[in-house]
Specification:
Elements lengths: L8 H12 L4 E5 L5 H11 L4 E5 L2 H6 L3 E2 H5 L18 H6 L2 E4 L7 H14 L11 E5 L14 H7 L9 H5 L3 E5 L8 H12 L4 H8 L14 E4 L2 H14 L4 E5 L1 E4 L11 E5 L3 E4 L13 E8 L2 E6 L2 E4 L3 E11 L4 E12 L2 E3 L2 E3 H4 L7 E3 L10 H6 L8 E3 L12 H8 L1
Parallel strand pairs: 1-5, 1-6, 2-3, 2-4, 4-5, 7-18, 7-19, 19-20
Antiparallel strand pairs: 8-10, 9-16, 11-12, 11-17, 12-13, 13-14, 15-16
């Protein structure tokens, strides 16, 4: 748990509901309200047999769980009833299963939640009860990044569902999900900035608030921009900036290769397989350090490199970096404990580093920065992008905009507001 972890009233209220009831629950809250921390706390303290799943490979690695597709053996397509089958090697897991937690639920399509319902009814041998009688808990924020629907599937999808979001699934209303909101924001302490972010979230931002934000155009944060990361809407823009900055460094380039074993698909790789680095490069630490010298999201500068040696300076302190391991897990039944446990089925070992003069807004979700540059470039293209980008920064004083924010950058899906209002 974080060093500054506090068991807030919000957390106690949610924990009791999760632990002491069998209700289906949707836990949400603004960016920085501790959804990830609550999930981790519950997982460490519950007496229930729980599996944690996520809609994407990266999200599954980050929450130390499995993807929905791998756990339920779903095909990589629009999920229909005929795609749901009995998971024969998982029957002992299902016999002990109390709860399914789905993290990053805002990115889960409606058909996936319907697929989860059908799969649990089948595998729990309980076809008449929602989710086969298993308690299902969703963690996420619909005001952040949305589900992705392939262009080829959009027309068919629109015929089946009113929206791509999980609340448009056939099971959501039938399963009587209780919504619980986390209200205390831990990331920002600045009341003015918090108010502005909430207005971006709801697309109620007025001219006065835009003027306050745009006063940060090309303004240096409270300290130097040397260790500032830039958020961009597209992979191409982030890659171009990183390649350009790396090429300008005159130091020797070193290439560090990852070790990959077992089942670890490419879409789940946390960093590059061949990591190209030079002394002087700005990097992002992408895993919490066991010795607490940095956290996932710390920005630093490479100081010294050798074939098997990396030294990084973070907040004025120099540290040697060891390789880290990311595990791909699968849930199994432990007959001795008579509980659901995890087994490692694959691993990815590499230095926990990414070049980070720039990263995409999408990859910044869940991270926090003291100093941040946001470059909306030619504009955002998806619901929630502007909110996610700006809410990564702890304070208004730590924020720099490369160009003025326009109302057109705040893309908002009004169907989410209607759901929350209903």
């Amino acid at each position: 748990m974080p060093d500054d972890f506090e068991l807030s009233e919000d957390f106690i209220r949610c924990f009791k509901e999760l632990e002491n009831t069998r209700r289906n629950i949707y836990i949400t809250g603004e960016a920085g309200t501790g959804k990830t921390t609550l999930l981790k706390y519950f997982r460490q303290n519950t007496q229930k047999n729980v599996v944690v799943l996520a809609p994407t490979g990266i999200a599954a690695i980050n929450c130390y769980g499995q993807t929905l597709h791998s756990f339920f053996k779903f095909p990589p397509k629009l999920i229909q009833k005929e795609h749901v089958r009995r998971v024969y090697n998982g029957q002992k897991i299902f016999s002990k299963l109390d709860m399914v937690i789905i993290d990053e639920a805002s990115m889960m399509r409606a058909d996936l939640l319907d697929g989860v319902d059908e799969a649990l009814r089948l595998n729990m041998n309980n076809p008449d009860e929602a989710f086969g009688g298993v308690q299902v808990v969703l963690f996420g924020d619909l005001y952040q990044l949305p589900p992705i629907i392939d262009k080829q599937a959009r027309e068919v999808y629109a015929q089946r569902y009113a929206t791509p979001y999980f609340f448009s699934s056939k099971i959501f209303d039938a399963a009587s999900f209780k919504r619980m909101d986390l209200e205390k924001i831990y990331r920002q302490n600045d009341a003015e900035f918090t108010t502005i972010l909430n207005k971006i979230r709801n697309k109620t931002l007025g001219a006065a608030e835009i003027q306050v934000l745009n006063a940060r155009v090309n303004q240096k944060p409270e300290s130097s921009t040397e260790d500032c990361i830039t958020l961009t809407p597209t992979n191409a823009a982030a890659l171009a900036l990183n390649e350009s900055k790396l090429a300008k460094l005159t130091a020797e380039e070193f290439i560090y290769s990852a070790s990959i074993n077992g089942e670890f698909d490419e879409s789940s790789y946390p960093t590059e397989v061949r990591l190209r680095l030079k002394a002087g490069a700005q990097v992002l630490m992408i895993q919490n350090d066991p010795e607490k010298r940095w956290v996932n999201g710390s920005v630093g500068e490479l100081v010294k490199l050798d074939e098997d040696f990396i030294q990084v300076r973070i907040e004025g302190k120099t540290h040697e970096v060891d390789k880290a391991k990311w595990k791909k897990i699968r849930y199994k039944h432990d007959p001795e404990l008579d509980r659901i446990t995890e087994e490692e089925i694959g691993g990815f070992e590499q230095y926990p580093i990414k070049l980070a003069w720039a990263i995409t807004i999408h990859k910044s979700q869940g991270l926090t920065f003291d100093r941040l540059i946001v470059d909306f470039d030619s504009g955002t293209f998806a619901h929630g992008q502007a909110y996610v980008a700006l809410s990564r920064c702890r304070s208004l004083e730590g924020l720099t905009l490369k160009r003025p924010l326009a109302q057109s950058d705040i893309i908002f899906d009004s169907r989410i507001a209607r759901y929350h209002a209903g």
